[in-house]
Write a structure and sequence with these properties.
Elements lengths: L5 E4 L3 E4 H9 L25 H8 L23 H23 L6
Antiparallel strand pairs: 1-2
């Protein structure tokens, strides 16, 4: 059906053997690796692997007071028991109602 120059690849596709040989010899260009400056550069040429260590060790370490993590006044109740959250909502409403009555003089203590 076909001459020896063609080979079957991926089912019913037919590819010329000369094209496969040319693709094997292909060297990638810089445009095919946009994240690299040079296609042949290796990871040993980066600053983290030796050059930056000398700079860091020569500088004195500035130590100040340890900072505590930021906290908010009212932490989120997400993840708590849903039954507790429902009851808490109604309890807050009752507390506000009692404080309002104390303010208006209808109650002597909250």
């Amino acid at each position: 059906m076909f001459s020896a120059e063609y080979i079957v690849t991926r089912g019913y596709r037919y590819t010329l053997l000369a094209d496969i040989a040319a693709a094997a010899k292909h060297q990638p260009t810089i445009h095919e690796y946009p994240h690299r400056k040079h296609p042949t550069s290796s990871t040993n040429s980066h600053r983290q692997n030796g050059q930056i260590k000398e700079l860091v060790s020569a500088q004195p370490v500035e130590e100040g007071p340890q900072e505590r993590p930021k906290t908010h006044r009212y932490p989120s109740l997400n993840g708590t028991d849903p039954k507790f959250r429902r009851n808490h909502r109604h309890a807050l409403h009752g507390t506000m109602k009692a404080l309002k009555e104390v303010k208006d003089g209808k109650r002597d203590a909250a």
